[in-house]
Please model this.
Amino acid sequence: MTITHAIPVTEATGVRVGRRGWFALAVLMLPVLLVSVDNTVLSFALPMIASALEPTSVQQLWIIDAYPLVLAALLVTMGTLGDRFGRRRMLLIGATGFAVVSAVSAFAPTAAWLIAGRAGMAVFGAMLMPSTLSLIRSVFTDRTQRRLAIAIWAAMFSAGAALGPIVGGFLLEHFAWGSVFLMAVPVLVPLLVLAPLFVPESRDPNPGRIDPISIVLSIGAMLPVVYAIKQLSVEGFGATVIVLFVAGVLFGVLFVRRQRHADVPMLDMALFRRPAFTGALLVNLLSVIALVGFLFFVAQHLQLIIGLSPMQSGLALLPSLVAMIVAGLIVVPISVRVPPRVLVPAALLFSVGGYVGIALTTGPDTLWPTVLASVSLGIGIGMAETVSNELILSSAPAAKAGAASAVSETAYELGTVLGTSVIGGFLTAVYRTTIAIPDGVPVGIAAEARETLAGAMNAAGELGGALGATLREAAAVAFDAGVGAAAATGAVLVAVAAVVAATTLGGRSTR
Model:
């Protein structure tokens, strides 16, 4: 029977769900699986995309960043609209649009076309993720069950990250790169059939009126700031960066002032006065920056330096992503007894150790050290993300679950942008300044080699012979220098996240 009624849920109900609630969770995992697969597989498809579409280094970053940039700008708006019009409704609209745009993007003839497709996917993706997390909040009113449901949600995210390189690697070895985008269709079609059957509709019982001015201000606050960060990492500090930052901050101030004086605000700013809520958001942000930055360069290291195929690279990272899943589930019973301000910093020490291991690992014969370092990184991120996400949802009223979930997802997507823009941009800058182009390389080929590592490897293949081998070696040395510097930066970010957790997450367990 199809469920069409809306269910206003409050924390006070605390009713434990039965089999139907867990079926609903299984259905909600489909879009989570899709988004996580899409994020991971794109990093592994990037070398093939770079070879086929020949993007510049800036376009290469935009292929990755267009999606999280647009998504970050729209998440709060879509989360709020879900609270008002129905979270399940937003989920179904987002799934339909995401599948259609993904199919179109699979046949992009140019880099610009693909960037536009990624932006279109982001519009509908902004409807998906806040809906999944907020629906979990409304279905699982018992905190013990909700803690397990969120651990499964996080584990599925990690499972998708593990499955993405393997399935994507298989597709990339047998089909064109566009096949990785066609995966959205068989995942989302079952969602469209099963969600109306098992997932109850829920919304804010007192949503207030739609505030178009707040929507414009929220987008105006996010877009300029995120774009400024991208410009800073790629082009360096300049007048454009200053103007964008100032514009974003100005819109942000106006947005906050409007929310504080509204009878029913689009986003309740009082949430940010709760240390556990704000601290958990910062932990998420810094952890995701470190994780996405790691995936950005380790995928290229495995394929272009060590020489693995895309599928082999995915299998090499499988142990770390399995460790992330297991750690996220194991931390659930531990979190009942150990307070977050102790548990999360202790978990993040594993991630710091992983990054230090990566920083000390260079050269073509470093497969197992890379695997072990990535396992250590995954254990820390898996445990920290499960605890912090549960704290974010528990700190917000059930009626505002969509908005709170959107803020959490905004931190995640902003971390994705910063991971590729800051760590990836920093790596690119080190690569460009340290690569030593051999004498005798034509000017045009030298410029291509200096742009990206993939460009250098393609140029070395064109040259062939001893000169090509020399260029390949120079590019590998320069890239490894950039990896070492980027990994050190990641270790510092994770250490900062541990300090934030120790000082903001409180001394009580999540019992």
Observations:
- The two ends are 36 Å apart (CA to CA).
- Confidence is low (pLDDT under 50) at residues 1-13.
- Residues 210-263 form one domain.
